[in-house]
Structure formats: structure tokens, C-alpha cells
Amino acid sequence: MAEATRYYEDVEEGDEAPASSHTLTRTDLVRYAGASGDYNPMHHDEVLATAAGQPSVFGHGMFSMGLLGTALTDYVGPGNLTHYKVRFSRQTWPGEELTTKIVVTGKRVEDGRNLVDLECSLANGDGEVKVVGEATAVLPSKS
Amino acid sequence: MASGRSDATTDADALLAQLRAFEGRPSGPPAEARDEVNQAMIRHWVDAMGDDNPVYVDEESARANGFPGVVAPPTMLQAWIMRGYLSQPDGAWKAQRDASGEASAQEQLFDALNAAGFTSVVATNCDQEYVRPIVLGDRLTVTSVIDSVSPEKHTGLGDGHFVTTRLEFTDQHGERVATMRFRILRFRPQSSRPKDVALRPRPAITHDIAFFFEGARNGTLLIQRCAQCGVLRHPPRPACASCGSFEWDTVTASGRGTVYSFVVVHHPQVAAFDYPLPIAVVELEEGTRLVGDLIGIDPADVEIGMPVVAEMVAVDDELTIPMFRPAVPVGAGRVGAVTGDA
């Protein structure tokens, strides 16, 4: 949900954004395939995925990036995100509960813009990290 | 061997030089989004993501948050230029390429990697820079460049090359709205990885049945016989169903028999067996029946009544079991019928 505007002065290094959790389902993967246009069958065709040696279909990396991205934009505001990068470290599997973690790592003013740096990750219930990344946002100032 | 090693190194160097030649080349022609940025696609995407931020679907909320109108989620970037099902190998893109007769640089690069054995792919990194929010009505074009190809790296998945592609997204005015770097690993699947050798399920070898497996190990098919009335019985058991006697001995079966009945197992599949798996109830010429795998025959060729002969097969170091093979090679039998007694 969009919340009240978050100002540069509102955040401090070490602040954490609210965590959000989502349990991945095969229906999510089908919906995401349709919505994103990524029809790699490893993400929706259980027969092909198992024939290829996978235990089951698995999540799109970009779905994980999107989940974590939603938590980021919920925190900084959709228009304020300027840079977001991730590394896909593990596959995600249907049935896993994926939880976001976002921490403010720094604040800086550059070319008159108020920048906030964040570290972010997505992990399953066992703490296995699926996606780890960094983001930068420009936040408005109260002054 | 020293020479082999140096050959391999030379090969790797030659390959890397070949791969590096693609750096800086456009992956393919610029691709224009098939549709302008629209509410329907955004709605599908935010529904799939469970993102309920109203600025993506509600004009008023978007304006209240300082946007000129409804905006697209930043991480939806790639969706605007995905060709969906068309980009699958047998889709329309391939047809288009076949018509133009030229493979794109990206296809040539992937062909070179495939030819060198780096046939598997996994996405490793994605880096997105947003210049401005993308709004309803924007018409995006993507220009894609092969940014870099790494030397061969050893990874947990296998040895491979990282390929980074840079995608520049521009709007209908030619202004850049976002840049994305997408990194994949093209790797050689680890076929040399020691596979767990699945063993067949172990039979429970009791006092009553031990002779059968011992006989099989010695290359003989032993059948239990009642020592009092002489009736054969299988599977082995303590007492004769005919006369009730506990006294028994064994006879060595000839191994010849006929298929009394059979099934072909397709599912469920258990490691250590090959499928489809034909299994027969074989009636031995001595007059009892036993169950065994059929070997040396296509499952489609199995027929009830066909003559078979037992063969003791060591399925692993510890276990030898009887299986049955057609007594007359299938196909040769028909020839024999035509040519008479050859």
C-alpha cells in the first residue's frame, strides 16, 4: 500500500522497512508468466522441469526481484526508486514462504538530491537467501 | 598429459577470443514494444505480484502522489518488451529470422557457447536504473548490446561463461527512461558428477527362500518341490498346499517356459529400473509359474504364449535374479517360419 510520503529526514541508517511475506504457489508462476511474457517452461511445465532434473517447477528470478521490489517501492515510494540491482543466489520453490528484508545502509546528498541507500534480500522460512541486492532512492526533503 | 593440457588451454583461449569478439555488438535489432504502456498489462502484473499500490491502477492516487497519471511498477520494466510465447524457439521470431536469413549476434554467441558445451543457462544478476517513471501511453523501444563475456569461471553449477547484456529503454521521443543489465551464466552441465547408483530393492531372504537366490547366483533356476507328494511350488513357502508336508527339496528347472501373462510398467517409476518395464508371469515347462522381468524385447512385441528362456542376471554385486528373454529372437522367429527348419 502507498503510505504517507516518507521524507529524507524520516529515515536513518540502520532503519528497517516492514517485512512482507508471500508463500509461492504454482498459480503465482503461471500468472507471472502471463503478466511478464516470460514463458520459460521450467517455470510452469512440471513435466518438462522434472525431466530436466529439477524437483519441480521453480520461480522466475524476476518474480523474486519483483516481490522484493514491491517491498522497496512500498517503503520509498514507486517514483523515488532510481537504482535497484539483485543477484539471484538460489532458486525459489512452490510452497516456500518468501520474506523480504530491507535495511537502510546510508544517506547522502549528491547533486542536490537526497539519496538513501538500501540493502535488500529475500529469504525462505529456513533463512536461505534467494535474492540479495541493493537499491538507491531519492527521497523528498521536508525543508 | 602436458600436451593435452596445453591444447585445452589453447582451445579455451581461442574460444574466449571468439566470444570476446561479440562484446559491444548489438544483440539484435532494436525492438519496439508491441503495445504502449497500458492499464490492462499493468493490472495483470500487479495482480500477479500482489502489489496493491494504488498509483499503478488509480489516476487520482497517482496524481495525489505527484505523478502525471497512472505509472507502471519500476520492476515491470522487462515485461514491456518481452515477446511472450513468440520468443520460444519455434515461435514467430525464429520464423522472422529464418526469413531474413541472418542470426543475430546474440544467437551467434549462444551458438558458439552451445558448440563448446556450455549448453545450460541460469540468470545470475539483474541491475535496473530508472531515469523516470514509466506512465500510461509511453511507447518503449529497447536496444540491446552484448556488454561483456567473462573468461571461463568455475562455479557451483559447473564451469561456464558469464554473459552480460545491456538493455537501454527509450520512449517515443527517443529519451532514455531506464537501463537494465542482465547477466546470465552459460555453463557446462556437470555430467561427470558421480550419480548415485540406485540399487534394486533388496528381497527379504528368509530361511525358506534363501535357496532360490543362492541358485540364481550359481546360474540355476531352482524350484521348490514337495518331498512327499512331488508338487512344485513357487514362491517358496514352508508347507505344501497339496498335502501339508513340511518336507521339501528342489529341482533345477530347464528355464524354458511361456509368457502366461504380462504387464508393462510405465508409472510409478523407481530408480534402478528402466522404463517402460515389461514384467511377465512365466509358466515353466515343469509346470509352475514365476514372475520376472522380460529382457531383450521391445515391450510392444511381448505376446501371451511366446516362448521364453530364463537368464540369471546379476543386477548388482549382491543380487542375481532370474529374468526371461524370448527363446526365439523376435523377428528371427518369423524368418525361421518362412525358411522352415534352419
General description of the model:
The complex is a heterodimer of chains A (143) and B (342). By secondary structure, chain A is an alpha+beta fold. Helices cover 23% and strands 32% of the residues of chain A. Chain A has one domain: Thiol Ester Dehydrase, Chain A, CATH 3.10.129. Chain A has helices spanning 26-36, 46-51, 61-76, and strands at residues 21-23, 81-88, 97-110, 113-123, 129-138. A 5-stranded antiparallel sheet of chain A has the order 1-3-4-5-2. The longest helix of chain A has 16 residues, at 61-76. In chain A, 37% of the residues are buried. By secondary structure, chain B is of the alpha+beta class. In chain B, 21% of the residues lie in helices and 29% in strands. Chain B has helices at residues 2-20, 39-49, 59-64, 92-100, 105-115, 210-217, 332-339; strands spanning 31-32, 120-130, 141-149, 153-154, 159-170, 176-187, 222-226, 232-233, 248-252, 256-265, 277-284, 289-293, 307-314, 320-326. The chains are: A alpha+beta (143), B alpha+beta (342). Chain A binds chain B through residues 1-2, 5, 22, 28, 31-32, 34-39, 61-63, 65-67, 69-70, 73-74, 77-79, 81-88, and chain B through 41, 44-45, 47-56, 61, 65-67, 71, 73-76, 78-79, 82-85, 87-88, 122-130, 133, 181.
